[in-house]
Amino acid sequence: MMKKNGTTTTESKKRGFFAQILHDWQLWVMLLPGIIYIFIFCYMPMYGVQLAFRKFDFSKGIFGGEWVGFKYFIQYFTSPMFKTTVSNTFIIAVVSIIFSFPAPIVLALIINQVRQERWKRTVQTVVYIPYFISTVVLVSMLNVMFAQNGGVLSDLLKHLGLVAENANLLGQKQYFVWLYVFSGVWQSMGWNSIIYLAALSGVDPSLYEAAKIDGANAMKRVIHIELPVLMPTIMILLIMNMGSILNVGFDKVFLMQNTLNKGVSEVISTYVYHLMAPTTGAPQFSLATAVGLFTNVVNFAFLMVTNWFSKKTTGSGLL
Q1: Which ranges of the chain have pLDDT less than 70?
Q2: How many other CB atoms are there within 10 angstroms of residue 162's CB atom?
Q3: Rounded Cα–Cα distance for residues 131 and 137 (Å)
Q4: pTM summary value
Q5: Among 3.20.20.70, 2.60.120.280, 1.10.3720.10, 1.20.140.10, what is the CATH number of 71-313?
Q6: Which of 49, 156, 164, 193 has the most CB atoms within 10 Å of its CB?
Q7: Which helix (H) or strand (E) holds 255?
């Protein structure tokens, strides 16, 4: 019978919950700060979701106010902003997943093919650097490089005939999603490739040697050795991405947003911000809470469906 720390597995199972805590109290003490942090900042604020079902009253706070049921959900679902914000959010999220999710996988596979360690470290350093550029600086760079007049990249695209001569890449609606997505790919794919490179480092070198002996070229080694190793990691990260499909990054969208592209850049997160901090009128806290709760419910549904599909197809999942 297997022993662990001097205690058999059977004895460990028979031991009660509190007895296990006392037995491994050092580990629980190490976990305690994290548990307290999560309880205070993740679980306690969840009580605030009841504000979505109440009419907010400044004098009574979030714990008072008239109970109105699903009034604010219906108000959002029937408002013109529902279709606009949901469609804009889905479009940006889906295009981001299509281009941003595979990019670090491909990059990791390419870097893994580099055999010279010095060149490999240089490539990794270069592709990691953009991740450490803040969102504010990144958007400032986009404003400079894609300016309608004098922007280096906008002038290059016009010279190549990829966009019209009078195109305003920062103001025209058809360019917003592509600027948002591909700037995100450039910034994050190097950093996101780290986890895939870590998974590839665990591949047994004898598998590569056996594949070479059998005549497998580089592409076949990727398909039959590396991709199967990466598949569990890919599915776990895909599930996590699908679990936040409606949480399109607020900071970057808000900073890139202007009056010309607002028709495609007004996503759920920026809409909630405008409800909480309106330019005119009082903040609509209850409506903003209802919109936020709706977003989380949809995200949870996507998470569960993707997790179920992953377990059915690959056998790996979060739950």
Answers
A1: 1-15, 280, 319
A2: 9
A3: 11
A4: 0.82
A5: 1.10.3720.10
A6: 193
A7: helix 250-256
